[in-house]
Q: What sequence folds into this?
């Protein structure tokens, strides 16, 4: 699939298996999701542009690199919060925006209830994070909010994606790169990814 990057790293696969296990406790789920998120963002940031800088070692001056653009991390509340801290540890100078979306259980429509973003996103590298890409409604709503602020360089990191969700997102935002640990079989009649891992937010926070 174009613009879909499945991160088939052995550590990602092993951790994803633990996350799928319904016996894994919330405490473990939080820890493991954090570990996978860090591995995934390593891949998602690989193509970030850098610019040359000079650096003085204790011995001499040499050439080094720094990221060319400011980075904005955007977790989709609630479940995206489970990916934020470990990613922030890898990109400590990043700014953090928040988008709150809740999927109505019956209609599966995403309803926005919170938005906290810098006013102008045109020059920023943005990582949108949410463990689950199911129907894709939440991802499209989040992208709409980012696009309204001029976002041009967005990468989305999802632990799990459904083929239906990927199609929906790419219908609206064909150029959006999606990084995921796995593309699962399908959505069930309740809009859950199967085989999936259940409701990521509930499993993370126990409610
Ligand atoms: C889940 C998940 C995504 C969304 C995916 O969140 O974390 O945000 O659903 O579904 P979609 O692709 O069909 O829109 P939920 O609405 O359950 O909220 P929560 O994170 O607060 O639990």
A:
């Amino acid at each position: 699939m174009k613009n879909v990057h499945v991160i088939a790293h052995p550590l990602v696969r092993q951790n994803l298996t633990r996350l799928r296990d319904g016996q894994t406790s919330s405490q473990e789920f939080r820890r493991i999701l954090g570990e996978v998120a860090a591995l995934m963002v390593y891949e998602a940031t690989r193509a970030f542009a850098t610019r040359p800088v000079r650096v003085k070692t204790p011995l001499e001056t040499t050439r080094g690199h720094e990221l060319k653009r400011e980075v904005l991390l955007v977790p989709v509340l609630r479940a995206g919060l489970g990916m934020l801290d470990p990613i922030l540890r890898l990109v400590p100078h990043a700014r953090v925006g928040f988008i709150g979306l809740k999927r109505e259980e019956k209609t599966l429509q995403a309803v926005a209830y919170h938005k906290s973003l810098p006013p102008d996103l045109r020059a920023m590298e943005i990582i949108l994070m949410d463990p689950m890409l199911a129907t894709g409604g939440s991802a499209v709503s989040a992208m709409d909010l980012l696009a309204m602020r001029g976002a041009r360089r967005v990468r989305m990191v999802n632990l799990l994606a459904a083929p239906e969700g990927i199609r929906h997102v790419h219908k609206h935002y064909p150029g959006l790169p999606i990084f995921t640990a796995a593309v699962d079989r399908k959505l069930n009649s309740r809009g859950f990814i199967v085989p999936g891992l259940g409701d990521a937010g509930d499993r993370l926070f126990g409610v």
